[in-house]
Structure formats: C-alpha cells, structure tokens
Amino acid sequence: MTAQRLNNVIAGLAAGQHVFASFAPAEPAAAIEFSTTRYDALVIEMEHKPWDVVALRDSLQYLLNRRQIAEGDGLAPALTPLVRIPANGAEKAQWHAKQVLDLGAYGVVWPHISTVEEARNAVAACRYPSLPGEPRHDPPGLRGDSPAAAARYWGLTNQQYYAKSDVWPLDPDGEILVALMIEDQLGVANLPRILDEVPGIGLVIVGEGDMSQELGIPRQYDHPLMVESKRRVLDTCQARGVAVGHPHVTADNVKQVLDDGYRFLMSAPVRSYPGLDLGRTLTGRS
Length: 286
Known about the structure:
Elements: H1 8-14, E1 19-25, H2 28-34, E2 41-45, H3 53-63, H4 66-71, E3 80-84, H5 94-103, E4 107-110, H6 116-125, H7 148-154, H8 158-164, E5 167-168, E6 176-182, H9 185-197, E7 203-206, H10 208-214, H11 224-239, E8 243-249, H12 254-260, E9 264-267, H13 274-282
Parallel strand pairs: 1-2, 1-9, 2-3, 3-4, 4-6, 5-6, 6-7, 7-8, 8-9
C-alpha cells in the first residue's frame, strides 16, 4: 500500500482496495499471535470485552513487529490497530476515544450510531479543537491534548503527530480512521443524512448481530429482512463513495461478500484464516 501512509487501512480504502481485518481482545498474548499474520488491520475489541487500557497499551506494543517495519518503506506498522470502544453512540463517551487515541490507536470503531448527532460526536471526539473559520473546522474537535504516548508509538515528534492525527477523509492527509457501526433500523434510515451532513466518516460497518436481534431474527444473517437492511446500507454508502465493512467473513461467504461490494472484510480470529486467504485470492492480492 501507499508508503507515505502510517495507517494502512486508510491507504487501502483511499486506493479503492479491499482491506482484510480480524478482531481480538486487548490481551498481549493475542497481540503476539496476530503480529505476524497477513491481516491489514486488527480491531481490538473493547465493547464486549473488558475496558482495560493497561492491557490495551501493552497489546499495542506487542503488535509492533520490528522486522516488518524495517523491511517496509516507512514507519507504518504492517498490522494497523483500531479499537472498538464500549460506548454506544447515544452515550457520548468522548473519553473512551481520547484514551485509545492517546495510546496510539490509528482509529476508533463506534458501536450503535443511529443519528446525525451521534455521528458528529464520534468524529468530533477523534479530532483536536480548532477555532471557527479555520480550514476543516467542522465538526469541531473535542479531543484533549496529550499526544506524547501516541507520537512515540507512531515514531513521530509531537508536532509531527499533530499534523497527521486528524480524521480521514476530512483531512486528506489524516491518519485517524473513524468507523461507524450501523446496528439498527433507525441508523439505516438516518444513514443518508449522516453521510451527507457529517464529514470525516471513513468507514461504515454493518452490525449484523444487533441488527438481527432488533428484527427478531437473531444471527440469521441470510434472512430476507437482513439482506434488505444490508443492501440499503451498501447502496447508501456506495452512492457516496464510503467503504462498507462486513464483520463476519468466512470461507463460505467471502465470495458473496465481495460480490455485494464490501471492502473492509473482518474474519473470525482462527489460525488458518481461510476467509482471509480466499479473499486475497479473489481480489488478486494473494
């Protein structure tokens, strides 16, 4: 992917490529396991797993693979760490985003975003403040200033970190990814307004589990109601050039997932990675 980028997820999405990811808890042992895999990204799961920032800090360090970085073209880690925080969109918990970004995460996955107001908060929480009238002021940033640990993790000075730590694609050179999970019918209905009115959203992920619960068909992901809801999300995002993520990619469904138009593919954390390998083959990245 693009050498000058620090965030390989953004590099892949900006280039129109498919990005392959998995998920794991904030545990050093899991980080070591994933540090030599072929994934592009790892979503560290802190929504349904414990909120443990000390374990997250250690996990981020163990994800770094010095040989991969040394053999690469720059400072970008081969495996880009993102963090799914525990707060639902309506909870407005900016401090969760602040803490994971301050530790060095390259993006935040926000669960249960259903309204324009919640989406604006998600983007604003990942940005530093600026004065009205400054370029790209909206949404006004809410993130507090404590960059030292993140700058060290990225391999930058504090000032260099400030220059790169805005959200993409609002800032074309930004290295922070804001991913919104759409997990209910209110979110599906509001998604056109969310994407039209809130700049800075880099990825939308369909929350199949919770969405199927609301529809009364828990985990029946091929049910017609689910297929229709996912199609609405895909159509809305594709019309606006926003990539869509699928959270449950397997060897059995990866071809359909690719045919449907998903570009951020998350497979279960299994050792053989059949969905990953098949997906790379189908997209010419093997």
